[in-house]
Amino acid sequence: METLVKKAVVLVSGGMDSAVVLAMAREQGFSCHALSVRYGQRHTSELDAAARVAQAQHAVEHKTVAVDLRSIGGSALTADIDVPESPQEGIPVTYVPARNTIMLSIALGWAEVLGAQPASTRREWPIPPATRRPPDPHAMRPALVPRAQPH
Fold first, then answer.
1. Is the pLDDT of residue 85 over 90?
2. Residue 97: its pLDDT value, please?
3. Do the bridges between strand 7-11 and strand 31-38 make them parallel or antiparallel, or are there none, so unpaired?
């Protein structure tokens, strides 16, 4: 009898949230494929940490995909915009437009290729609700439901 291996694609940013999601997925018996995104951020410290987390958590593989969001602009993480030292009203200058949606789309694509379950690390959206209606994180739910693969 053949044993079915449960695979998961986990977005790994190098932060605590994604490290915990990766550990939880492994604990639940998933064979984890770690995914990071080089989106044009001005630093590589998070990507370096993501590689260390993926290795320490024994991910099957760790892939870093490049998507240059600098051309979109609008964020201190991808453009030459100063980060204020005191809290500001409204949308923070470190918010990267559509970053999470793009990352999730890439994870879904890789999960489809692998026949895996996508696992996201973001439960919150960094846009204050009073300022702008945040994207509905459940809107992509139909894309997360595994579909029968053609034979």
1. no
2. 87
3. parallel
Task: State residue 80's pLDDT score.
Answer: 86
Gyration radius (Cα) of the chain, Å: 17
First-to-final CA distance of the chain: 20
What's the 3-state SS for 87-146? CCCCCCCCCCCCHHHHHHHHHHHHHHHHCCEEECCCCCCCCCCCCCCCCCCCCCHHHHCC
Mean pLDDT (whole number) for 130-150: 45
Domain boundaries, the chain: 7-144
Per-residue pLDDT for 45 more than 90? yes
Q: What is the distance between the alpha carbons of residues 151 and 141, in angstroms, rounded to a whole number?
A: 24
CATH no. of 7-144: 3.40.50.620
